[in-house]
Amino acid sequence: MSDPLLEVRDLHVDIPLAHGSLRAVRGIDFHVDRGELLCIVGESGCGKSLTSLALMNLLPSRARRRAAALRFAGQDLTALPERRMADLRGNRMAMIFQEPMTSLNPAYTIGNQLTEALTRHRRVTAAQARDRAVHLLERVGITAAASRLGQYPHQLSGGLRQRVMIAMALMCGPELIIADEPTTALDVTIQAQILHLLRELQREFGMAVVLITHDLGVVARIADRVAVMYAGEIVETGRVDALFAAPAHPYTRGLLACIPVPGRTRPGEMLGSIPGIVPSLTGNLDGCAFRNRCGEARDICARTVPWGHGAGGQAVRCVNAGVA
Amino acid sequence: MTDTLSLATHLPPRSLLAGALRRVLGHHGLMLGGIILLFVALVAIFAPLLAPHDPYAQNLSRRLIPPIWHAKGTWEHVLGTDKLGRDYLSRLIYGSRLSLMIGLSATLISGLIGTTLGVLAGYFGGRTDAVINYLITTRLAMPVVLVALAVASLVGGSLQVVILVLGLLLWDRFAVVTRSATMQVCHGDYIAAAQAIGCSTSRILLSELLPNILNALIVVATLEMAHAILLEATLSFLGLGVPPPAPSWGLMIAEGKQYMFFSPWVITIPGVTLLVLVLAINLVGDGIRDASAPENRN
Amino acid sequence: MTAPVLELRDVRKIYPISRGLFAKPARLAAVDGVDLVINRGETLALVGESGSGKTTIARMLLGLLEPTAGQILVDGQALDPARRKAMARRIQPIFQDPYSSLNPRKTVSQIVGLPLVVHGIGTAAERRARVAEMLDVVGLARRHADAYPNQMSGGQRQRVAIARALVMRPDVVICDEPTSALDVSVQAQILNLLVSLRRDFGLTYLFISHNLAVVEHLADRVAVMYLGRLVEQAGRAELFAHPRHPYTRALLASVLTPEPGLGVPDPGLGGSFPNPIAPPPGCGFHPRCARAADRCRIDVPQPSAVPGGIVSCHLPLEQGLS
């Protein structure tokens, strides 16, 4: 069993405020093996986007990151100076953002941005970079790729732009791709096409992918493993089939009960819901952050939250989960 | 969906007022400008009580007495006298009245014109917008000072003429800013909701739209006030503004021109007060913009 | 037989796109000849992606846009601008973005009470009582009446928007993607609220959405739009079981249910994308349609009745194939 490609232990992200600080990510552990697709899923404010930025060291200047271990291919990322980190970014670790409108520079052509991604990291001629760009554009399903190189981002639709972003991420043949809600801003049919493409490319190139999303449907269809985040913590993590077959954490169960599934939920019947709201992430947060919304909360939940195991072998942060 | 960062900057204030007050008091430029402005306003209001002499009283036997920090200065005329023996401090104090009044009235008139045009252009778009844009462009093509001079020379300079001319010429920035602020607000669905409810256009513009562009409007108003005050000084300096013997600061600078090398205080004192007033107004305008910016980011 | 409360007859909305001083303006057909009927008490879902024209139809029904051609009938009477205010009492919207559909400078009670003020309903005291009652109905605590929108969460703001929409007891509510901008757990609460309000107030919903799972949960009938035209209409069960139009089938295939092991299907739509300004000749869907024939590139398909609904396709899918 080889070492994981990406290993994260006890990652914290804090944002200092006028009074106190916002503890946005509160000590999460996860890993990604070579060639596997991990989905980090959670609702808004759970800290998933900040996690992805923390991995790439692209957090906004106010935010502070610390971790017991943050290793990529054995290399310690926390100790890496920014110059070396910039060598890694776009090269062995690539990122795809949510908003294709704003992630591409409107002042430069597609070809320019694609080739720059390669020439920044490799000693190749301009012609070689162009050839690879054309090859990748065709691979992501863009027809007439050579003529597209001279186009500007505003001349492309949202779906095309996102394909360009994927091609750009692939230019240097990365080992890891971090995709932060890559299809949320796209139409449903385009979303399916892009996700299908991503899965194909991942299998073909043997890349590891960390996909951040709020959509449990996406998670179910595309993930190998899942990590569910709530209020800055990972509350459940495991193989996708195990998690969906027998979700162990009350939050995961609550989320799944909220979603109408054609063919399964009866039309017009009341959907499940999770009462209450997410607790404030400033100040003291002892015990389980979910306890004020949990139907199975016990006194001990206010003090400690042990890791247990769910029925399918997934790791669960809940005192009610049996130890399998 | 909000992300964690916007949650961080967006922790709900107890009320809009408490949040605003906290930002205002924390902003140094705003506090400094505000205090200076308040001071000048109080001086202007209480001018009759503060001025030691009548600003119009001439006394030719006491011409060009230097201010108190010169060897020949006297306490009777703390800032000296001008070429006609009028007490400088009193003229300065009464001059503040003139500057502020002109600033306020001209800003009021130009604000009304410019805001109306800007809001109509931004809200209705289409042909209305095209026509109003044409008007704005035409106005921008005119050099303000020359037009003001031309009008003043035709009609004769007076306080009313100056106010009217400035009011009718300085509305362009109002129009441009309120137009883009209106267009931005109209992107919000609450305007569409008001229309769907059946609100009349006037109710939408006055009750739903205007409170939301007020921030931008106030910033422009303060900056245009500074602009108007400076322009009035320019016009008076050129002889086509407020006519003598009014204690306009611009006029005082003009009158002191010939004595610049021998009695430099005649020109520097009103120059400095003009600078300080305009700076204060600019600081207040910038400060309001900064203080309201995080809210605007929502 | 329930009577139609809303009817669209050959409605079109064409925008001229200026191409400079000397070229003839291009024609953006946001809505290109739509016939639609909404019956009293039913929930009709209008489904489509960006550029389909569904939002434009919503705005025309609300009186915010004038149709370029065609007629809109409310209870058999034409919707004309002069009587827009009277129509407003009967048709109200709920918009997608709870962060921009409420005036940030007004309190919740001012927002919810605005329709009553505009239409002169009741005295000030009666209006206050009605607003408080609406807050109860949508599940908001009464203390929220004096709060500002920026002090409330997305779900709470959407409840305010719902209270505002219902305060005049309208007959029809146009819901334009009311849950798309909300978290999953909040979405469920709002959907539950919409379902119970529909029952308690006897409302007719025009529910616009791109989320077919939600549509399947809520709708009685479904109408599918593509590039400004209606391509299919059917009852909910029939449409989900036996889609007739290739686009409907692709849409349904794109629904990612939380069922692991099924993978992400390729909807088979190819690489081109719909461009509303230069729509393809003939059937607007043909560049992306696996079944396209020569006829599809020339003739615009007309609506034809099939068992269970109406479809506009030269080569509709047979029943039994889905």
Compact summary:
The complex is a heterotrimer of chains A (324), B (298) and C (322). In chain A, 31% of the residues lie in helices and 22% in strands.
Task: Describe this entry's structure for a reader.
Chain A has 324 residues and is an alpha/beta fold. Chain A has helices at 48-55, 82-88, 100-103, 110-119, 126-139, 145-148, 158-170, 188-205, 216-222, 240-245, 250-258, and strands at residues 6-16, 21-32, 37-41, 64-66, 69-72, 75-76, 93-96, 176-180, 208-213, 225-230, 233-239, 307-309, 315-317. With 298 residues, chain B is mainly α. Helix content of chain B is 72%, strand content 0%. Chain B is built from 13 helices and no strands. With 322 residues, chain C is of the alpha/beta class. Helices cover 28% and strands 23% of the residues of chain C. Chain C contains nine helices and twelve strands. Chain C has helices spanning 54-61, 84-88, 108-118, 124-137, 154-166, 184-201, 212-218, 236-241, 246-253, and strands at 4-17, 26-39, 43-47, 69-74, 77-78, 91-94, 172-176, 204-209, 221-226, 229-235, 304-306, 309-311. Chain C has an eight-stranded mixed beta sheet with strand order 6-7-8-3-9-10-12-11, sandwiched between helices. The longest helix of chain C is centred in the middle third of the chain and has 18 residues, at 184-201. The two termini of chain C are 30 Å apart. The mean pLDDT of chain C is 89. Classes of the chains: A alpha/beta (324), B mainly alpha (298), C alpha/beta (322).
Essential attributes:
heterotrimer; A: 324 residues; alpha/beta; eight-stranded mixed sheet; five-stranded antiparallel sheet; 13 strands; 31% helix; 22% strand; globular; B: 298 residues; mainly alpha; MetI-like fold; 13 helices; disordered N terminus
